[in-house]
Amino acid sequence: MNKRFSIHPNDFKHYTTDKIRKEFLIEDLFQNDAITHTYTHYDRLIVGGAMPVNKALKLETIDVLKSTYFLERREIGIINVGASGSVTVDGTQYPLNFKEALYIGKECKEVVFHPSTNGRALYYFNSAPAHAKYPTRKVTFKEAETVEMGSLETSNSRTIRKLIINTVVPTCQLQMGLTELKPGSVWNTMPPHTHDRRMEAYFYFEIPENQMVCHFLGEPQETRHIWMKNNQAVLSPPWSIHSGAGTSNYTFIWGMAGENLDYSDMDAVKTVDLR
Q1: I need a labelling partner for 134 at 20 to 30 A (CA). Which of 70, 71, 121, 224 fits?
Q2: The pTM is what?
Q3: Gyration radius of the chain over CA positions
């Protein structure tokens, strides 16, 4: 487990490349037969990954939570970004195919990630504090709220699949989904936006070998960037834009936590106003 603290935007303006990467980039999410956790002070979101290879992995509590079990005061969203696998929640097993999601509510005591029988299952998850208990639910592509956005002319033709949001499954504050860039398109979340009422984390995957994504962050008039590889995540404070452009098309998972569950609650920024 590692911890990330909140950063003031005025301080961020003076960060070097190495400092930006240290504070916002999460590089080693998936490790053999291990569960990783990054605990952030942005809305207390936890960004993590589980990679069971030779054995099932139980989601244990971590010291920073000061809880008897991981979900005692939390909810969690899981999306499988590897081979087909399954997750057991308090004795009930939920098969998860590639890009399928599982929401698990507060007070579920035992969560177990199982290896795949036909490859390597990779479970990406976000967890946020929860004030109420909602039912565990698997969300397939058919159940997701799907939106087509952008165009090839502006290099941002993409499919947005809202998997764990309040119009699909009830949650306390956690929202998750994924966006797939179509061939020939490279820009995500463009035009960009901020939302002062919640933070966000992006997880980039399906980046072809030897290709990269340049993720943009910072205040709209004071932007910076981070070059990212496949299966890496990045944190976005409420005051920061969160946008990216790849050397190829790719897919990314967005996860949000905060006080507002309205997906459309965004403070838009005109592309021509970026600096």
Answers
A1: 121
A2: 0.97
A3: 18
